[in-house]
Amino acid sequence: MPQVYFDHASTTPISSVALESFIEQSKLVGNPSSLHSYGRLARKKVEESRESLANLIGCHSSEIIFTSSGTEANNLAIKGILWHRKREDPKRKLILISSFEHHAVLDPSLWLAESGQAEILMIDVNQDGYIDLEQMETVIKERHEEIALISVMHSNNEVGTIQPIKEISKLAETYKIPLHSDAVQSLGKVNLSFKELGLFAMTVSAHKVGGPVGVAALVLKKGVDITPLIHGGGQERDIRSGTINAAAIASFVSATSSAMRDMESNYQKIFALRAKLIATIQGQVSDVRLNSPLEGEILPGIANIEFPSTESDSMLLLFDAEGIACSTGSACSAGVQEASHVLLAMGRSQTQARSSLRFSLGISNTESEIEYLGACIRRVIDRARDAYRG
Amino acid sequence: MLTEVENTYMKLIAAMSGGVDSAVAAARASEAGHQVIGVHLALSKNPKKYRSGARGCCTIEDSHDARRAADVIGIPFYIWDMSDEFHENVVENFLSEYAAGNTPNPCLRCNEKIKFAAVLDRAKAMGFDGVVTGHYAQTKDVDGQRLLYRAIDSGKDQSYVLAVLNQEQLNGAHFPLGDTTKDNIRLEAKSRGLSVALKPDSHDICFVPSGDNAGWLRERLGSQVGDIVDEDGNKLGEHNGAYTFTIGQRRGLALSIPEKSGEPRYVLKVEPVNNRVIVGVKADLAIHEVSGLSPIWCGPRPSGENSGFIQVRAHGSAHSCKYFLDESGPLPELKAIVDQPIYGLATGQAMVIYDGDRVVGSATISGTK
Predict the structure, then answer these.
(1) What is the mean pLDDT of residues A226-240?
(2) Which of 300-329 (A) contact B at CB < 8 A?
(3) Which CATH superfamily is domain A262-386 in?
(4) How many domains does chain B have?
């Protein structure tokens, strides 16, 4: 049975250059913080990688703080900026985010609100998956003195829509409000420049771009200060502590470099595969509804599709049994599938959200894999509909 | 048994609670060559709200244990949200039955309405042939009919809570553990590298977090002071809700007026409508005839009067009896006349009839004499 991986937005295979880079660096001993020759060699690799990454994403190398995950970087941004801004002025306790942020932004914000440290305000998104800029502008104008930070994702991980960060950044700049953007899904797939976007902070992660799991970065505007989350050595500019992961960082940057070099051609190829995937599914199951826009400001590989009168967990099991991996919104800590908060924010009903699947394509996918999906999908959907509990 | 009965390989859903029994059952089914997918049933909307320890069947820890067992066995694993079905059919039923003065068995109800109904139906709709569980019971196919038998480990036998399964449900049910003792299942789990080998058995009612059934019922049904009276209606004491008492109960009455003979008193009757609990001596609890409604046959429907055994509690004794189906009234009734009296029997409990070790069928106790 063929094995088909349509879950690249969860994690994508490590690229050969990234793997080579990881192995090569892992063979060497030396803590980048040590002063001896071993340490210096490791430090050299880390700093070269930092400079390369800075060139790739349009920032200064001193603006990059390596972390262990995108989630950590998002937590550092949300909590670190809020705490620092509140210390400067206790009035600033409002966090402004979009209503369909990734849990790595949503949950720390909710935690801060629930623990009484912040107020959280979520800006609506429309049914196509784009933030309501007018509402954002109104809130900023009315409450700018209270706003500690704004955080809006660069592109949405479930439906693939790219948000108008530059416009938001202009609004934020008017009132000197820090703007953070979770750009984890965008890195290596679409143009991404920290400087051009006018951001205060930005999150990028390795394993969505062909690098290893366990390394990411928060890009933080030069000269600004935030409160650290993790203490114990201050290895990353006193903002983040922990032994610097030289092999993972080198591998992260190799993967990013490779992805950005081939970005245009990869975009075209993956976008064409996505179009074929959507057409194939529509051809087999006539009543599907697209949750992702067909074209426009979108990532090339994400297609979120509603299959009416099904439950997503049935479809996942049945696709998995056919060797096809795709995904659904999220699951609670016990593993129970929940209706996607992203789709609910986009105005879909609980039933619609529970009937939706995300297919996310990557560079390793092929047309024949989509044809295989086309051969299986009718059987999967028929059975999922037989099992539908309404 | 799974390997003996089936000649062809099947696609099966293994219901995995996170305990040792269902883990070994799934492993045996997989090892027998069947295509097995492990499924953990999420029975609570908020799993943290049920048990906090890893002893019930509703915690995050349990779902992790089940997932780990599936990984060790090498089968796919999913969580199925059955919380709505469970709440409606088991929890609500438990409450309404108690409120009506009956004593329901939620495990039996869960087997009847969830594991071998909602789960089995969903599995079949998705192209599976049946459901594997870690229950201690045996099935045998005789003359094209599937029959249900006790497990060989009499201490663990769970045929009582499975006696609500009809033929169609039994046809889709697979119990790979019925030929093995619990001790050996634990040894087997250890040898298979399953970390749940020594996990304590679940007990009590999985949706009552504290194990305090009376308190749980009081919280949901309210607490109303009522009288505890003797058979002549003389008030002997008070209680905080008739539904928290069950017939045959001796403890928790807290009566200050002793019985004339000095004998201990037992609950004889619970009257939820007037919130009254009637007590008396043990001899008054003696039951000679049991009637049950909604009979279910786990094999051929019996005709005429037969000799067999009746069991009225999950791990209770089997009492020799004569049984027959009485169809003279508006509803058919399963009746059992016991050779020796049974004490302390509550309506709402299941009466299960055995022919030797074979389960003949069951009914919900509606009356006693």
Answers:
(1) 94
(2) 313-314, 316-318, 320-321
(3) Aspartate Aminotransferase, domain 1 (3.90.1150.10)
(4) 3
Q: Model ipTM? A: 0.85
**Same domain, yes or no, for B39 and B166?**
yes
CATH number of A16-260: 3.40.640.10
Domain that holds residue B262: 223-280
* Beta carbons of A85 and A149 less than 8 angstroms apart: yes
- For residue A250, give every residue at least 6 positions away whose Cβ sits within 8 Å of its Cβ, in sequence order, or none: A21, A22, A24, A25, A45, A46, A49
- How confident is the model over A95-120, as pLDDT tens digits? 999 999 999 999 999 999 999 999 99
Please name the residue of chain B whose CA is at the shortest distance from the CA of residue A312.
Answer: B80
What's chain B's Rg over C-alpha atoms?
22
Q: Which two tokens stand for residue B120?
A: 């089995």
Contacts of B87 in chain A (CB under 8 A): none
Cα–Cα distance, A29 to A38 (Å, whole number): 6
Q: Are residues B291 and B249 in the same domain?
A: no
Identify the contact set of chain B against chain A, taking CB-CB distances under 8 A. 37, 40, 42, 47, 59-60, 63, 67, 76, 78-81, 83, 121-122, 125-127
Residues B4-48: tens digit of each pLDDT: 444 579 999 999 999 999 999 999 999 999 999 999 998 876 555
pTM for this entry: 0.89
Does one domain contain both B79 and B161? yes
| Amino acid at residue number A273 | L
Interface contact A384, partner B, CB < 8 A: yes
User: Does residue B172 lie within any of the structural domains?
Assistant: yes
Q: Which residue of B has its CA nearest to A314?
A: B126
Residue with tokens 């399953």: B194
Q: How many CB pairs under 8 A join A and B?
A: 49
